[in-house]
User: Fold these one by one.
Assistant:
Number 1:
Amino acid sequence: MTTLDTRKVSINFGGLWAVKDVDFSINAREIVGLIGPNGSGKTTFLNIISGIYPATNGTVTLQGENITGLRPFEIFKKGIARTYQSSRLCWDLSVADNVLMGLYTKQKASFLDILIHPQKTNNEIYECLQECMDVLSYFNPALFNRRYDLARDIPHIDRRRIEISRALVGRPTLLLLDEPTAGLNDEETMRMMDDIHKIKEKIKDICIIIIEHDMKVMERVTERIVVFNAGQKIAEGTYREVISDANVVKAYLGGSTV
Ligand SMILES: Nc1ncnc2c1ncn2[C@@H]1O[C@H](COP(=O)(O)OP(=O)(O)OP(=O)(O)O)[C@@H](O)[C@H]1O
Ligand SMILES: [Mg+2]
């Protein structure tokens, strides 16, 4: 079943088409890689899907529902969660608190509830915390053990894991990962890939779009790769198919295919 479908999605920034006429789809349980040169529109495409930028043209459909033009928190509630290319953590909050922030838009208790029904509010906080603990403990048990440490005190790889955990607590049907291994060395990158595979094992029917420059990562985690160049989709296929596509070699791989 198709989870997300985009038709002729485009966005124009002051005359520049950062994304142009992109048809894209992803099915439940798929991991699709997004590659392309710097500035080719990969992040912008995720920004359109997650509602940060409204598309100039085109439609975005999630499980058959047209979500074009919805705001980011509405899209998050519908089941699309994401991480960002650059880190977005609160350094002086604990690991657990940073993850908890991912449930902010799902909070039901109002300000009045806090005053009048403190027990109800406490129960909700407890349930949210429990969800954070569940995610941390399956996603990375070592990080779960450091859940009360401040974000600033933990290594870079774990900071990346916090961001993924924060996206996962919303129980997304589609997870968007923008360069989750940026700044990691080869060994850390492979450990991160193992964690990403765990998500698929754990969450039934989730699908993942991952932007990544490391082709070794792409080969290891993706079922399909979509290639962007200058805002347009120039190729799509398995790792083997795209690395032998002449347009992709010319635009992105520059002759070295792995
Ligand atoms: N808010 C914005 N206003 C104007 N131009 C923008 C905006 N966001 C992105 N762009 C432009 O859109 C183009 C695509 O940028 P984008 O960040 O999507 O590229 P990318 O493929 O993610 O690159 P990288 O691999 O470096 O992360 C670039 O030319 C960029 O300058
Ligand atoms: Mg980018």
Number 2:
Amino acid sequence: MKKVPIRSCLICNEKSDKRALYRIVKNKEGQVFFDPTLRANGRGAYVCEKESCIEKLKDSKRLDKAFQADIDIEDKEKIVREIMENKK
Ligand SMILES: [Zn+2]
């Protein structure tokens, strides 16, 4: 039987099947973006489907910590916007 990959939400730490989460990636070039395909190359971080968690990505430092980088507020706002537009 194939194991379902489990990941936790950056904000609330709740664990879910990774396909139920939204993936954010930092690639080799240091760009941070929302990855709707779940397959982009780079280091991934996940956020759950709760709007409160998605919105908090903007204000919290969790994303910066996960990627060990200072992420521009513009990039964070773009990620939040794109996740909201892609909501399942
Ligand atoms: Zn969450």
